[in-house]
Input
Amino acid sequence: MMTNDSNKSYVDYLDINLIYSLIKDNFKLFFIVGSLAFVISVLYSLTLNNIYRSEAILQINNQSQNQASSISSLSGFARGLGLNLSQTADRASYALETMKSKDFFEELYKDDQFLINVFASQEYSHGEEKLYLDKDIYDKGWKSNPASITGTMKPSLLDAHQKFLTNNFSVSRNGETGFITISMKHISPLVARDTLDDLIKQVNQFVMDKEIKETKKSIKFLQDQIAGLNNSDVKRAVSQVLQQQIQLLMISEVTDEYILKIIDSPYVPEIKFEPSRTRIVITFSIFVELILFIFLMIKELNKQRRFEF
Output
Protein backbone atom coordinates (compact mmCIF):
# COMPACT_ATOMS: atom_id res chain seq x y z
CA MET A 1 0.00 0.00 0.00
CA MET A 2 1.37 3.45 -0.99
CA THR A 3 1.02 6.21 1.62
CA ASN A 4 1.62 9.90 0.76
CA ASP A 5 2.24 12.66 3.26
CA SER A 6 3.48 15.93 1.65
CA ASN A 7 7.25 15.30 1.43
CA LYS A 8 7.47 11.61 2.35
CA SER A 9 6.18 8.23 1.29
CA TYR A 10 6.89 4.58 1.99
CA VAL A 11 5.90 1.22 0.59
CA ASP A 12 4.07 -1.07 3.03
CA TYR A 13 4.86 -4.45 1.53
CA LEU A 14 7.76 -6.90 1.62
CA ASP A 15 10.55 -6.27 -0.85
CA ILE A 16 12.44 -9.36 -2.07
CA ASN A 17 15.66 -7.37 -1.89
CA LEU A 18 14.91 -6.54 1.72
CA ILE A 19 14.38 -10.22 2.54
CA TYR A 20 17.61 -11.17 0.78
CA SER A 21 19.67 -8.46 2.49
CA LEU A 22 18.09 -9.33 5.86
CA ILE A 23 19.15 -12.98 5.56
CA LYS A 24 22.57 -12.04 4.17
CA ASP A 25 23.32 -9.48 6.88
CA ASN A 26 22.17 -11.84 9.65
CA PHE A 27 23.40 -15.10 8.17
CA LYS A 28 25.72 -15.73 11.09
CA LEU A 29 22.88 -15.19 13.56
CA PHE A 30 20.59 -17.51 11.59
CA PHE A 31 23.32 -20.16 11.54
CA ILE A 32 24.00 -19.94 15.27
CA VAL A 33 20.34 -19.95 16.28
CA GLY A 34 19.55 -22.75 13.82
CA SER A 35 22.43 -24.83 15.13
CA LEU A 36 21.30 -24.33 18.73
CA ALA A 37 17.72 -25.25 17.81
CA PHE A 38 19.00 -28.35 16.01
CA VAL A 39 21.09 -29.48 18.99
CA ILE A 40 18.32 -28.79 21.52
CA SER A 41 15.72 -30.66 19.44
CA VAL A 42 18.08 -33.62 18.96
CA LEU A 43 18.79 -33.83 22.70
CA TYR A 44 15.08 -33.54 23.48
CA SER A 45 14.09 -36.24 20.98
CA LEU A 46 16.68 -38.60 22.45
CA THR A 47 15.05 -38.30 25.88
CA LEU A 48 11.76 -39.64 24.50
CA ASN A 49 11.00 -43.32 24.90
CA ASN A 50 10.25 -45.38 21.83
CA ILE A 51 6.56 -46.26 21.67
CA TYR A 52 5.51 -49.60 20.21
CA ARG A 53 2.04 -50.47 18.95
CA SER A 54 0.57 -53.95 18.86
CA GLU A 55 -2.58 -54.58 16.82
CA ALA A 56 -5.19 -57.29 16.48
CA ILE A 57 -7.98 -57.82 13.95
CA LEU A 58 -11.22 -59.23 15.30
CA GLN A 59 -14.53 -60.45 13.99
CA ILE A 60 -17.86 -60.49 15.77
CA ASN A 61 -18.94 -63.96 16.86
CA ASN A 62 -22.58 -64.17 15.80
CA GLN A 63 -23.19 -67.70 17.03
CA SER A 64 -25.15 -66.68 20.11
CA GLN A 65 -26.93 -63.95 18.16
CA ASN A 66 -28.01 -66.44 15.48
CA GLN A 67 -29.36 -68.69 18.18
CA ALA A 68 -31.25 -65.78 19.71
CA SER A 69 -32.69 -64.80 16.33
CA SER A 70 -34.24 -68.26 16.01
CA ILE A 71 -36.77 -67.33 18.70
CA SER A 72 -37.77 -64.05 17.09
CA SER A 73 -41.24 -65.48 16.44
CA LEU A 74 -41.66 -65.83 20.20
CA SER A 75 -40.22 -62.45 21.11
CA GLY A 76 -43.62 -60.75 21.12
CA PHE A 77 -45.01 -63.39 23.46
CA ALA A 78 -41.95 -63.11 25.70
CA ARG A 79 -42.28 -59.31 25.91
CA GLY A 80 -45.83 -59.91 27.09
CA LEU A 81 -44.32 -61.84 29.99
CA GLY A 82 -41.92 -58.99 30.73
CA LEU A 83 -38.84 -60.49 29.02
CA ASN A 84 -36.59 -59.11 26.31
CA LEU A 85 -35.04 -62.09 24.53
CA SER A 86 -33.41 -60.23 21.67
CA GLN A 87 -29.73 -59.37 22.01
CA THR A 88 -28.30 -56.10 20.77
CA ALA A 89 -28.90 -55.96 17.02
CA ASP A 90 -25.55 -54.38 16.16
CA ARG A 91 -23.14 -56.63 18.03
CA ALA A 92 -20.11 -54.87 16.52
CA SER A 93 -21.11 -51.46 17.89
CA TYR A 94 -22.01 -53.11 21.17
CA ALA A 95 -18.53 -54.68 21.40
CA LEU A 96 -16.80 -51.39 20.47
CA GLU A 97 -18.66 -49.37 23.07
CA THR A 98 -18.11 -52.07 25.69
CA MET A 99 -14.34 -51.94 25.18
CA LYS A 100 -14.40 -48.16 25.64
CA SER A 101 -16.80 -48.17 28.58
CA LYS A 102 -15.91 -47.33 32.17
CA ASP A 103 -17.77 -50.44 33.36
CA PHE A 104 -15.43 -52.71 31.40
CA PHE A 105 -12.33 -50.68 32.25
CA GLU A 106 -13.18 -51.16 35.91
CA GLU A 107 -12.42 -54.86 35.41
CA LEU A 108 -8.96 -53.95 34.10
CA TYR A 109 -8.52 -51.42 36.90
CA LYS A 110 -8.89 -54.16 39.51
CA ASP A 111 -5.63 -55.69 38.26
CA ASP A 112 -2.86 -53.76 39.98
CA GLN A 113 -0.22 -55.18 37.63
CA PHE A 114 -2.09 -53.71 34.68
CA LEU A 115 -2.03 -50.26 36.31
CA ILE A 116 1.66 -50.59 37.18
CA ASN A 117 2.63 -51.56 33.62
CA VAL A 118 0.59 -48.80 31.99
CA PHE A 119 0.93 -45.89 34.42
CA ALA A 120 4.19 -46.46 36.34
CA SER A 121 6.56 -47.52 33.55
CA GLN A 122 9.64 -45.41 32.91
CA GLU A 123 12.01 -47.28 30.59
CA TYR A 124 12.29 -50.52 28.67
CA SER A 125 15.53 -52.45 28.10
CA HIS A 126 15.52 -54.43 24.86
CA GLY A 127 18.66 -56.34 25.83
CA GLU A 128 17.15 -57.56 29.08
CA GLU A 129 13.55 -57.50 27.82
CA LYS A 130 12.76 -55.83 31.11
CA LEU A 131 10.45 -52.97 32.02
CA TYR A 132 11.80 -50.49 34.56
CA LEU A 133 9.33 -48.60 36.73
CA ASP A 134 9.36 -44.98 37.81
CA LYS A 135 10.27 -45.18 41.49
CA ASP A 136 8.71 -41.79 42.11
CA ILE A 137 5.38 -43.42 41.22
CA TYR A 138 5.75 -47.03 42.31
CA ASP A 139 8.39 -48.71 44.47
CA LYS A 140 7.10 -51.87 46.18
CA GLY A 141 3.86 -49.95 46.41
CA TRP A 142 2.23 -46.78 45.10
CA LYS A 143 3.95 -43.64 46.35
CA SER A 144 1.95 -41.29 48.55
CA ASN A 145 0.23 -38.32 46.94
CA PRO A 146 -2.14 -36.44 49.28
CA ALA A 147 -3.43 -34.30 46.40
CA SER A 148 -4.76 -37.37 44.56
CA ILE A 149 -8.23 -38.84 45.03
CA THR A 150 -6.64 -42.20 45.82
CA GLY A 151 -4.15 -40.65 48.25
CA THR A 152 -1.31 -42.19 46.26
CA MET A 153 0.26 -41.94 42.81
CA LYS A 154 -2.18 -44.64 41.70
CA PRO A 155 -4.59 -42.94 39.28
CA SER A 156 -8.30 -42.88 40.04
CA LEU A 157 -10.66 -44.99 37.96
CA LEU A 158 -11.87 -42.06 35.84
CA ASP A 159 -8.38 -40.59 35.41
CA ALA A 160 -6.89 -43.94 34.44
CA HIS A 161 -9.76 -44.63 32.02
CA GLN A 162 -9.33 -41.28 30.26
CA LYS A 163 -5.54 -41.62 29.98
CA PHE A 164 -5.79 -45.21 28.76
CA LEU A 165 -8.13 -44.30 25.91
CA THR A 166 -6.14 -41.17 25.03
CA ASN A 167 -2.57 -42.48 25.23
CA ASN A 168 -2.64 -46.25 24.94
CA PHE A 169 -5.73 -47.95 23.55
CA SER A 170 -7.66 -47.41 20.34
CA VAL A 171 -10.40 -49.33 18.56
CA SER A 172 -11.96 -48.89 15.12
CA ARG A 173 -14.29 -50.73 12.78
CA ASN A 174 -13.96 -51.20 9.03
CA GLY A 175 -17.26 -50.12 7.54
CA GLU A 176 -16.87 -52.38 4.49
CA THR A 177 -15.68 -55.66 6.06
CA GLY A 178 -17.06 -55.18 9.57
CA PHE A 179 -13.72 -56.26 11.03
CA ILE A 180 -12.62 -54.56 14.25
CA THR A 181 -9.04 -53.38 14.73
CA ILE A 182 -7.78 -52.75 18.24
CA SER A 183 -4.34 -51.48 19.17
CA MET A 184 -2.27 -50.91 22.27
CA LYS A 185 0.68 -48.53 22.55
CA HIS A 186 3.43 -48.87 25.18
CA ILE A 187 7.15 -48.37 25.65
CA SER A 188 7.47 -52.14 26.01
CA PRO A 189 6.50 -54.19 22.94
CA LEU A 190 5.87 -57.18 25.21
CA VAL A 191 3.50 -55.26 27.46
CA ALA A 192 1.69 -53.90 24.39
CA ARG A 193 1.12 -57.45 23.08
CA ASP A 194 0.26 -59.04 26.44
CA THR A 195 -2.12 -56.25 27.47
CA LEU A 196 -3.99 -56.49 24.17
CA ASP A 197 -4.20 -60.26 24.40
CA ASP A 198 -5.56 -60.07 27.94
CA LEU A 199 -8.01 -57.32 26.99
CA ILE A 200 -9.60 -59.49 24.28
CA LYS A 201 -10.08 -62.33 26.75
CA GLN A 202 -11.56 -60.02 29.35
CA VAL A 203 -13.99 -58.42 26.90
CA ASN A 204 -15.30 -61.85 25.94
CA GLN A 205 -15.59 -62.85 29.60
CA PHE A 206 -17.21 -59.55 30.59
CA VAL A 207 -19.93 -59.71 27.92
CA MET A 208 -20.47 -63.44 28.45
CA ASP A 209 -20.90 -63.06 32.23
CA LYS A 210 -23.32 -60.19 31.72
CA GLU A 211 -25.48 -61.99 29.16
CA ILE A 212 -25.37 -65.34 30.98
CA LYS A 213 -26.59 -63.59 34.11
CA GLU A 214 -29.51 -62.11 32.16
CA THR A 215 -30.26 -65.47 30.53
CA LYS A 216 -30.30 -67.27 33.88
CA LYS A 217 -32.70 -64.68 35.25
CA SER A 218 -34.94 -65.28 32.25
CA ILE A 219 -34.80 -69.04 32.73
CA LYS A 220 -35.70 -68.79 36.41
CA PHE A 221 -38.58 -66.45 35.60
CA LEU A 222 -39.91 -68.80 32.90
CA GLN A 223 -39.64 -71.82 35.18
CA ASP A 224 -41.67 -70.00 37.81
CA GLN A 225 -44.24 -69.03 35.17
CA ILE A 226 -44.67 -72.60 33.91
CA ALA A 227 -45.36 -73.87 37.39
CA GLY A 228 -48.38 -71.58 37.71
CA LEU A 229 -49.89 -72.03 34.21
CA ASN A 230 -52.94 -74.12 33.46
CA ASN A 231 -53.55 -73.22 29.81
CA SER A 232 -51.78 -75.87 27.72
CA ASP A 233 -51.17 -73.60 24.71
CA VAL A 234 -49.59 -70.88 26.83
CA LYS A 235 -47.62 -73.45 28.75
CA ARG A 236 -46.28 -74.94 25.49
CA ALA A 237 -45.25 -71.47 24.23
CA VAL A 238 -43.47 -70.69 27.48
CA SER A 239 -41.74 -74.07 27.32
CA GLN A 240 -40.44 -73.27 23.83
CA VAL A 241 -39.04 -69.97 25.04
CA LEU A 242 -37.46 -71.72 28.02
CA GLN A 243 -35.90 -74.38 25.82
CA GLN A 244 -34.35 -71.75 23.55
CA GLN A 245 -32.98 -69.87 26.53
CA ILE A 246 -31.37 -73.03 27.88
CA GLN A 247 -29.78 -73.70 24.47
CA LEU A 248 -28.48 -70.13 24.40
CA LEU A 249 -27.00 -70.62 27.87
CA MET A 250 -25.26 -73.84 26.80
CA ILE A 251 -23.72 -72.17 23.75
CA SER A 252 -22.52 -69.27 25.89
CA GLU A 253 -20.70 -71.51 28.36
CA VAL A 254 -18.77 -73.62 25.84
CA THR A 255 -16.96 -70.88 23.87
CA ASP A 256 -14.04 -68.66 24.86
CA GLU A 257 -14.60 -66.28 21.95
CA TYR A 258 -18.07 -65.27 23.08
CA ILE A 259 -18.39 -61.98 21.19
CA LEU A 260 -14.95 -61.40 19.60
CA LYS A 261 -13.23 -63.92 17.34
CA ILE A 262 -9.55 -63.36 16.64
CA ILE A 263 -8.65 -63.06 12.95
CA ASP A 264 -5.13 -61.73 13.45
CA SER A 265 -3.67 -62.20 16.94
CA PRO A 266 -1.80 -59.49 18.86
CA TYR A 267 1.92 -59.55 18.05
CA VAL A 268 5.17 -58.23 19.51
CA PRO A 269 6.05 -55.17 17.35
CA GLU A 270 9.64 -55.00 16.15
CA ILE A 271 9.66 -51.41 14.85
CA LYS A 272 8.76 -48.40 16.96
CA PHE A 273 5.54 -46.60 16.15
CA GLU A 274 6.62 -43.21 17.51
CA PRO A 275 8.18 -40.71 18.08
CA SER A 276 9.49 -39.54 14.72
CA ARG A 277 12.71 -37.90 15.90
CA THR A 278 13.59 -36.63 12.42
CA ARG A 279 10.26 -34.84 12.19
CA ILE A 280 10.70 -33.34 15.65
CA VAL A 281 14.17 -31.98 14.81
CA ILE A 282 13.18 -30.56 11.42
CA THR A 283 9.91 -29.03 12.63
CA PHE A 284 11.46 -27.40 15.71
CA SER A 285 14.48 -26.04 13.79
CA ILE A 286 12.32 -24.53 11.04
CA PHE A 287 9.94 -23.06 13.62
CA VAL A 288 12.76 -21.35 15.52
CA GLU A 289 14.32 -19.97 12.33
CA LEU A 290 10.92 -18.68 11.22
CA ILE A 291 10.35 -16.92 14.54
CA LEU A 292 13.80 -15.32 14.27
CA PHE A 293 13.11 -14.19 10.69
CA ILE A 294 9.74 -12.62 11.65
CA PHE A 295 11.34 -10.84 14.59
CA LEU A 296 14.15 -9.39 12.45
CA MET A 297 11.74 -8.43 9.67
CA ILE A 298 9.44 -6.54 12.02
CA LYS A 299 12.43 -4.83 13.57
CA GLU A 300 13.76 -3.78 10.16
CA LEU A 301 10.38 -2.53 8.88
CA ASN A 302 9.84 -0.46 12.01
CA LYS A 303 13.32 0.95 11.63
CA GLN A 304 12.63 2.00 8.02
CA ARG A 305 9.29 3.57 8.90
CA ARG A 306 10.82 5.62 11.69
CA PHE A 307 13.49 6.78 9.25
CA GLU A 308 10.89 7.76 6.63
CA PHE A 309 8.91 9.78 9.14
Remarks:
- The chain is about 55% helix and 15% strand.
